[in-house]
């Protein structure tokens, strides 16, 4: 009789632990889906994984912004810079724009600048590029090859990196929730 009671207790404990693990996994899955990092697309990222290396430098580049100005890495040096990476195929990228705009506004107030890179077919004429143009200093549209994003090391969308005046990465992260957390923290 005692073995039956011990067996039932062990089964009950294992079942309770299994339920707790399941609830934790489901909660994490929901967080990732709402941040653009869920299993739904090839642009998904694990929370906080932008692909941009901390301590890395602004890559050498030359590109034309949507307003027609020429932008190079040299034009970004000497002040703090926030660079955001957005894709037309990323549902979370649209949700990230207001959060990125909040960072842009605060950075501009301290003398910094913001750059948004939007990639996808016809990205220059996209609604996403228009939304970003209204919120940030410089918007660059790139084709679906995402060459400039690759130069920066961005692997996931949305993602962002903050560079110091010396052009070195101070922080980098991916997902809407990372932008939300940083906005609250700063």
Report on the architecture of this protein.
- By secondary structure, the chain is α/β, with parallel strands linked by helices.
- Helices cover 42% and strands 19% of the residues.
- The protein contains six helices and seven strands; from the N terminus they run αββαβαβαβαββα.
- It has helices spanning 2-34, 73-76, 91-109, 127-133, 147-152, 176-185, and strands at residues 62-64, 70-72, 81-87, 113-119, 138-142, 159-163, 169-174.
- The strands form two sheets. Strands 5-4-3-6-7 form a five-stranded mixed β-sheet.
- Helix 4 (127-133) links the parallel strand 4 and strand 5.
- Helix 3 (91-109) runs parallel beside helix 6 (176-185).
- The chain starts with a helix and ends with a helix.
Major sheet: order of its strands? 5-4-3-6-7
Average pLDDT over all residues: 85
Fraction of helical residues: 40-55%
Number of strands: 7
pLDDT < 50 stretches:
35-48
Radius of gyration: 21 Å
What class do helices, strands and sheet pairing give?
A: alpha/beta
The main pleated sheet reads as: 5 strands, mixed
Total of helices: 6
Q: What string, H for helix and E for strand, traces the elements in order?
A: HEEHEHEHEHEEH
Task: State the separation between the terminal residues, measured CA to CA.
Answer: 61 Å
Global geometry: elongated
